[in-house]
Specification:
Layout: H1 2-9, H2 41-44, E1 48-50, H3 53-60, E2 76-79, E3 87-90, E4 93-94, E5 98-102, E6 105-106, E7 129-133, E8 148-153, E9 166-176, E10 181-191, E11 195-206, E12 223-236, E13 239-253, E14 261-278, E15 281-297, E16 313-330, E17 334-351, E18 365-387, E19 390-404, H4 419-426, H5 434-446, E20 452-468, E21 471-482, H6 486-490, H7 496-499, E22 510-512, E23 520-532, E24 539-561, E25 567-592, E26 596-611, E27 616-617, E28 625-634, E29 637-646, E30 664-675, E31 678-685, H8 701-706, E32 722-730
Parallel strand pairs: 5-8, 22-25
Antiparallel strand pairs: 1-7, 2-3, 3-4, 5-6, 7-8, 9-10, 9-32, 10-11, 11-12, 12-13, 13-14, 14-15, 15-16, 16-17, 17-18, 18-19, 19-20, 20-21, 21-23, 23-24, 24-25, 25-26, 26-27, 26-28, 28-29, 29-30, 30-31, 31-32
Length: 731
């Protein structure tokens, strides 16, 4: 009876099986160039968590934000932002402190509010592999970060057997009741044994969602996105070449915790990937190019915009680069990896004048003009098996980051020789000293040398020991470093209007850059103990304590408080420390033809982090949280009942006036049924319509502005009850 109720309540997506009689799918085989005692430590490391295919299928059906695919990963949380633009957090380290990779490409922020992060350029449906690596990250998997790596990749090209033609694909439609969200996606492949052509597309849109407990609408939480991609693959022998070109359009996306919204974002990209196996080892090479055109302004909840209203802000971003990695086996037990990469970013961030406005005009506000960030990376990594059941990994990486930008100007810029006009303009009513402040700030910024070269190096030392057939232990040390981003270094405006347009923290405060920032250096120490049954199928318990000491962590100093209570903050280097424990596990409670298979799973995360200069908590540290879930599979039915538990957030960053939030418990139910070439899904999130606030959601500026900036400024509310339904068809 309990199982029947669970199945009837809700839904989980299971991907389609290949139809009987269709051409079998062939992918490039992994070539075993030497026989090792165990798989590569970069693949089996206990510091890395790969989202299972089952979790990918379940989670991708209930969300439009790819970041949420990692919600069950120990140590992972999210800085909530727009509906498709949350920022990833690993062990309390967020955003630029985490290397976020899409198809092997590190995508840098192209917005002063980070409204277009890397994971917003790929929809959950299109993700085939998703991995989180904690701070003990192999140098071959990324640099220029502190907290670890998040990586998602599309499916590799599919090929038919020799002499056959493969035609396959799928299509999905979904509806979410809270916010009236609609989604549609499709993918089709035509291939023979040598060539493969795939076309994929997706659409997702949602309105403002309702808070739990019937407490109203969360303003500025709507979004719309359309994306397309085409992949051409070539496969011959042990060689694979794939080229993907695509475009992602977001005509609008509201941000409930920002003063502005995104009113257009178009990304066009081309990625190329080559993998090949040779007598001496394997070679992987990637090349990429991306163009982003980004516009911010006010959507309806924040007053709307027109030719003479709102506040237009434009960004143009271009990135390009390559990566080359060679894996060379030595003897039977050792492996050498060497690699080289180059990443180029060019950025222009300008705010056009608003006709008739005395504050936003008469000239264009140049926030970053001709900004450049180039990174040259090289690494050497040695993996060895010094003893039975022991694997070690030692790697060194160098990243040289070169940054520069041009001169800037405020709205009231006056050409040399016309200082009298500048004085007159600065005294005009309604300016509140803004023009004088930003004029002086621009002059001071232009007088400085903007060129920087950061020479960083990373070190990783890791050891894995299979102590028994039921216990594995892994521990290590990593020295990680990252240079500042363009906005941390070069944002210069100090007025309230200009500075509050900078910042991806959802706190309403104003931010100004610091041209003297140094690279942050994190020292990560972590140990993971993994208990499991002999076959690694019935049960597992994993516990991971960690400690991170960071030199020159990029935090803030408080310069002043504005009249409305918000603050002007400047980026600054401070020493900091973080420590915590992640624990997770699962247990197969039953498995029989009569009752199906039932698995109980759980996780709990605890983290604390302090700024050792200001003696305050680091911003947006997730309170103790976790979940307990029951998954059952019975024939063509699958179901999941999940309780999410979050403790009260009482440790906050007082520099940013971070709000405290009460604890909460949420019940989610999902279930699905597979029938021939179709999968039907039904889900119910926040079953009890629990009222709660997002601990990492920032403050509800959308509601605050909509109410005329009157009343209490509250945290962003969590989404209330939502019914989610979808149907997937395959061919």
């Amino acid at each position: 009876m309990t199982r029947a109720l669970l199945f009837a309540a809700c839904a989980v997506y299971l991907p389609p099986a290949r139809a009987a009689g269709s051409s079998p799918v062939v992918t490039l085989p992994e070539v075993d160039v030497y026989a090792a005692d165990a798989p590569s430590l970069t693949d089996r490391s206990l510091m890395a968590t790969r989202v299972s295919s089952k979790d990918l299928r379940q989670l991708s059906r209930g969300t439009a934000d790819t970041t949420e695919l990692f919600s069950r990963v120990p140590g992972f949380s999210m800085w909530n932002a727009g509906g498709i633009s949350a920022l990833p957090v690993i062990n309390g380290m967020a955003d630029d402190n985490v290397a976020t990779m899409v198809d092997g490409v590190r995508i840098q922020p192209a917005c002063p509010n980070h409204m277009n992060p890397a994971l917003s350029y790929i929809t959950p449906d299109m993700v085939a592999n998703a991995t989180v690596i904690a701070g003990i990250t192999p140098v071959s998997l990324g640099g220029d970060s502190l907290g670890g790596t998040v990586s998602v990749e599309r499916r590799d090209p599919q090929f038919a057997r020799r002499g056959k033609v493969l035609v396959t694909g799928w299509a999905r439609g979904a509806y979410h009741s809270n916010g009236s969200g609609w989604e549609g996606s499709a993918s089709a492949t035509v291939a023979n044994d040598t060539w493969s052509l795939n076309y994929s597309a997706s659409y997702q849109a949602r309105g403002d969602y309702h808070r739990g407990g019937g407490e109203g609408v969360v303003r500025s939480s709507l979004y719309k996105n359309v994306s397309h991609s085409v992949t051409l693959g070539y496969h011959k022998g042990n060689h694979l070449l794939a080229v993907t070109a695509g475009q992602s359009d977001t005509p609008y996306e509201g941000f409930p915790n920002a003063w502005m919204d995104m009113t257009n974002n178009r990304s066009t990209f081309v990625n190329g990937k080559y993998t090949g196996a040779f007598d001496w080892g394997t070679l992987e090479a990637r090349g990429y190019w991306q163009r982003v055109d980004h516009v911010m302004n006010d959507l309806a909840d924040k007053g709307g915009h027109g030719w003479d209203t709102g506040m237009p802000m434009n960004d143009r971003n271009r990135i390009a680069g390559y990566q080359i990695k060679a894996t060379i086996p030595f003897g039977r037990h050792d492996t050498l990896r060497i690699g080289d990469s180059f990443d180029h970013q060019w950025l222009a961030d300008w705010w056009p004048p608003l006709p008739g406005s005395m504050m936003m005009g008469p000239n264009t506000y140049q926030n970053i003009d001709d900004g450049r960030r180039d990174r040259l990376g090289n690494f050497v990594e040695w993996e060895a098996h010094p003893a039975p059941h022991v694997q070690t990994l030692l790697g060194v990486r160098s990243d040289v980051v070169m940054m520069n930008t041009g001169n800037v100007q405020p709205y009231d810029y006056v050409a040399p020789g016309m200082s009298g006009m500048s004085t007159g303009m600065s005294g005009m009513g309604g300016m509140s000293g803004m023009a004088v402040t930003d004029s002086h700030a621009a002059d001071a910024f232009n007088a400085q040398n903007h060129h920087h070269t950061y020479v960083n190096f990373d070190l990783t030392a890791l050891m894995h020991w299979d102590a028994t057939d039921r216990l594995s232990i892994e521990g290590g040390y990593a020295r990680k470093s990252r240079a500042p981003n363009l906005f941390e270094l070069y944002s210069w405006g100090r007025s309230e209007m200009a500075s509050t347009m900078i910042g991806w923290f959802g706190d309403g405060n104003g931010y100004v850059g610091n041209n003297h920032l140094q690279s942050a250096i994190a020292h990560n120490v972590s140990v993971t103990a993994d208990w499991h049954d002999q076959a690694r199928k019935l049960w597992e318990l994993k516990v991971q304590p960690y400690f991170i000491y960071t030199e020159n962590y990029i935090n803030v100093n408080r310069l002043k408080t504005f009249s409305d209570g918000f603050a002007l903050l400047q980026f600054a280097n401070h020493n900091a420390q973080s420590y915590g424990v992640n624990a997770s596990g699962h247990y197969t409670a039953w498995s029989s033809p009569k009752w199906g298979t039932g698995v109980i799973s759980a996780k709990v995360d605890w983290v604390r982090a302090q700024d050792l200069v200001t003696h305050t908590s680091l911003y947006h540290q997730m309170p103790t949280n976790g979940f307990v879930a029951l998954d059952e599979t019975y024939g063509n039915w699958s179901g999941r009942a999940e309780i999410i538990l979050v403790k009260r957030k009482s440790t906050v960053d007082v520099l940013r006036s971070e709000p405290r939030t009460p604890g909460y418990a949420l019940l989610n139910l999902t279930a699905s049924y597979r029938w021939k070439k179709a999968v039907f899904q039904l889900g119910l999130d926040n079953v009890l319509n629990q009222a709660a606030y997002l601990p990492l959601g920032g403050v509800a500026l959308g509601n605050y502005i909509y109410a005329g900036r009157k009343g209490a400024l509250l945290p962003v509310g969590l989404m209330g009850r939502s019914v989610n339904a979808s149907v997937t068809m395959t061919f």
